[in-house]
Amino acid sequence: MNDSTNEGRLAAYLSRIGLAKPPAPDAAGLAALQRAHRTAIAFENLDIPLGRPIEVASDPVFAKLVTGRRGGYCFEHNRLFRDMLGVIGFAARPLLARVHLGLPAGAMPPRTHILLLITIDDAPWIADAGFGGAYVPPMPLGEGGIVEGPDGAAHRLLREGAPGVLPGEWRLDRRAAGAEDWQPQYSFELAEVAEADLVQASHWTSTRAGERFTTQRILSIALPTGFASLNERTYKVTDGGSTTEREIADAADYRAVLVERFGLDLSEAEVAALGLF
């Protein structure tokens, strides 16, 4: 992208996420940008059951998430987020992670998640605008660091092992609001990642038979004081300390929830093609 394209895309992106101007390239600016991004652009994998390929290069991701006002999954969200961070003046690079959420202890899943390593005042931070299971605020990369999300859940970073070990060097855990136990979310290492690695990981995630993203329709979005998710027909909202959950009744109800909560305007034909009703 040339400079004029960068400026135009940044303006369109900021409008998409509801910010009047770019934040400063510091810790507060990073937090504000990721928060706005995740409350405006839904996490969703609906193109997979609709039979559409997932592209993770800058141009198609921008066209889908910004121009087309759709959502996406981690490789799309963090591609867009990384591009816009770079225009603003942040130094950011991708990391690959193994998602442990919902898996038994000791499982070794493949690296199918992307997060970002950000350098702020010569110190490393992690940021993630594309984790569908929860909202993880940006946090300094350090042993035992804890941050709290808008839904009251806490996240912490722990050393998983030495650099280069198979499980990864770091692990992110989550403790739900009011809970005592921490649950592993994902583990990662700090090795450099090539663009081809991201393409390969995304392709596996979006095409391998029997995996979560090829068998389920998944959506989530961060709320100002909570978090909302839609997994198949189960719609769950945690907001202001209370949680409600219900089953989506029919295709019309599903479309209404997509529009009202997730900002997605799918046609009747597209919703029918999801195969939920």
Summarize the structure.
By secondary structure, the protein is an alpha+beta fold.
Protein model, in words:
This protein is an alpha+beta fold and 277 residues long. It folds into two domains: 3-212, 2-Layer Sandwich (Arylamine N-acetyltransferase fold), CATH 3.30.2140.20; 214-273, Arylsulfatase, C-terminal domain, CATH 3.30.1120. 32% of the residues lie in helices and 26% in strands. The strands form two sheets. The protein has an eight-stranded antiparallel β-sheet with strand order 5-4-3-2-9-8-7-6. A hairpin with a 7-residue loop joins strand 8 and strand 9. The protein starts with a helix and ends with a helix. The mean pLDDT is 95.
How many domains? The number is: 2
pLDDT under 50 segments (min length 5)? none
The helix/strand class is: alpha+beta
C-alpha Rg (nearest Å): 18 Å
**CATH fold-level name of the largest domain:** Arylamine N-acetyltransferase fold
So what's the overall shape? globular
- Mean pLDDT comes to 95
The residue fraction in helices comes out at: 25-40%
The CATH C-level name of the largest domain is: Alpha Beta
Largest sheet: 8 strands, antiparallel
Overall strand count? 13
At CATH level 2, the architecture of the largest domain is 2-Layer Sandwich
Distance between the termini: 42 Å
N to C succession of SSEs: HHEHHEEEEEEEEHHEEEEHH
Order the strands across the largest sheet as they lie in space: 5-4-3-2-9-8-7-6
SSE map:
Blueprint: H1 3-17, H2 27-40, E1 43-44, H3 58-67, H4 74-88, E2 91-99, E3 111-120, E4 123-127, E5 139-140, E6 146-148, E7 154-159, E8 170-175, E9 183-188, H5 195-207, H6 212-215, E10 218-223, E11 226-231, E12 234-239, E13 242-247, H7 251-262, H8 268-273
Antiparallel strand pairs: 1-10, 2-3, 2-9, 3-4, 4-5, 6-7, 7-8, 8-9, 10-11, 11-12, 12-13
